[in-house]
């Protein structure tokens, strides 16, 4: 497959991001019955400037399978709501204890811990409300709700985060120290939400079994590559560039790809995974140009 340049992704993202942001704005607008401060905290985190990679994956997967952006947009918003909830809770003092997120104060720093917890809870539940009420037909909405719940739950993102915390707190007791262990954590902590973003776009577009399989293969590799580059950025980048505190993984004793493999092998592993992810897109031909450009962007963000 021909390698796609970074400007190709930038052009694609510049077209999608404003549409995603507008959809998130409308679905998080103040509503009767929602306390004002809670609404502010929700919008502070959900609407903060971000890459919007997960909702883009929903939309790009939908288009690759012959669907439309309009039909897939509710699922794209739901995925970003779950992602925003996870960031709010990850930043809490009981978790990663971060005071900066996306270049602005983390939710608990701006609104206090109690409101931040509730804002995360509200975003998680709002995500499923959007899927249940805006996706049609009903059986597709149910399938989307089930897929997102599994990816975000104890066998997915939450379970991966639990293992990540256990390793940092007591690495010997946790018994997780190998590459396989690390990849298992991040297939759930990071990869599950990337994979379900693709799956939602496919489900909404009535994808066939071959398309679902190809997107699953792409998503598995993209998710691991994304985490490797994130680990590398934590070592090599700066706070202004990434919009959050860096160097914290080593300080917390977390198991990371650079810590286990070293910088050079980690970079090589990320390159290999992205090449394999793009190869998985071959069955889609030109319809997957957006997905390929996004994968190449994930690799380039560490350069």
Describe, in short, the structure shown.
The protein has 17 helices and two strands. The chain has helices at 6-27, 36-46, 53-64, 69-90, 107-111, 113-134, 138-152, 157-169, 171-174, 179-189, 191-204, 209-236, 239-242, 248-251, 257-261, 263-279, 289-300, and strands spanning 100-101, 104-105. It has a two-stranded antiparallel ribbon with strand order 1-2.
Main features:
17 helices; 73% helix; Farnesyl Diphosphate Synthase; 303 residues; mainly alpha
Description:
It is globular and about 50 Å long. It has one domain (6-300): Farnesyl Diphosphate Synthase, CATH 1.10.600.10. 73% of the residues lie in helices and 1% in strands. It has helices at 6-27, 36-46, 53-64, 69-90, 107-111, 113-134, 138-152, 157-169, 171-174, 179-189, 191-204, 209-236, 239-242, 248-251, 257-261, 263-279, 289-300; strands at 100-101, 104-105. By secondary structure, it is mainly alpha-helical. Strand 1 (100-101) and strand 2 (104-105) form a beta hairpin. Helix 3 (53-64) packs antiparallel against helix 4. It is built from 17 helices and 2 strands. It has a two-stranded antiparallel ribbon with strand order 1-2.
In the CATH hierarchy, the architecture is: Orthogonal Bundle
Backbone shape: globular
Strands, count:
2
Number of domains: 1
How confident is the prediction overall: mean pLDDT?
Answer: 90
Rg over CA atoms, rounded to whole Å, is 18 Å
By helix and strand content, what is the structural category? mainly alpha
In the CATH scheme, the class would be Mainly Alpha
- Span from first to last CA? 22 Å
Query: What is the fourth-level CATH superfamily?
Result: Farnesyl Diphosphate Synthase
User: Percent of residues in helical segments?
Assistant: over 70%
Number of helices: 17
From the 3D structure, determine the CATH topology: Farnesyl Diphosphate Synthase
Helix and strand element order: HHHHEEHHHHHHHHHHHHH
User: Which consecutive residue ranges, at least 5 long each, have pLDDT under 50?
Assistant: none
Strand portion:
under 5%
Strand line-up of the largest beta sheet: 1-2
Main beta sheet: 2 strands, antiparallel
């Amino acid at each position: 497959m021909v390698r796609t340049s970074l400007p190709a992704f930038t052009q694609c993202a510049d077209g999608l991001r404003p549409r995603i942001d507008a959809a998130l704005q409308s679905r998080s607008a103040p509503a009767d019955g929602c306390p004002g401060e809670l609404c502010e905290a929700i919008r502070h985190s959900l609407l903060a400037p971000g890459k919007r990679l997960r909702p883009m994956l929903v939309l790009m997967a939908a288009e690759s399978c012959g669907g439309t952006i309009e039909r897939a947009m509710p699922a794209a918003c739901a995925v970003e709501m779950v992602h925003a909830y996870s960031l709010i809770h990850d930043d809490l003092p009981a978790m990663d204890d971060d005071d900066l997120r996306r270049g602005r104060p983390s939710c608990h720093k701006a609104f206090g811990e109690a409101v931040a917890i509730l804002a995360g809870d509200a975003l998680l539940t709002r995500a499923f409300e959007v899927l249940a009420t805006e996706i049609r037909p009903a059986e597709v909405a149910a399938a989307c709700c089930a897929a997102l719940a599994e990816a975000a739950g104890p066998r997915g993102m939450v379970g991966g985060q639990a293992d990540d915390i256990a390793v940092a707190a007591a690495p010997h007791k946790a018994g997780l120290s190998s590459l396989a262990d690390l990849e298992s954590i991040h297939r759930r902590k990071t990869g599950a939400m990337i994979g379900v973003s693709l799956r939602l776009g496919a489900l909404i577009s009535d994808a066939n079994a071959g398309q679902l399989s190809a997107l699953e293969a792409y998503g598995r590799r993209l998710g691991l590559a994304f985490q490797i580059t994130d680990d590398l950025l934590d070592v090599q980048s700066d706070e202004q560039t990434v919009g959050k505190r860096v160097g914290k993984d080593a300080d917390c004793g977390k198991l990371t790809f650079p810590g286990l493999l070293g910088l050079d092998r980690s970079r090589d592993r990320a390159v290999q995974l992205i090449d394999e992810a793009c190869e998985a897109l071959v069955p889609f031909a030109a319809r997957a140009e957006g997905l390929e450009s996004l994968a190449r962007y994930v690799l380039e963000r560490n350069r």
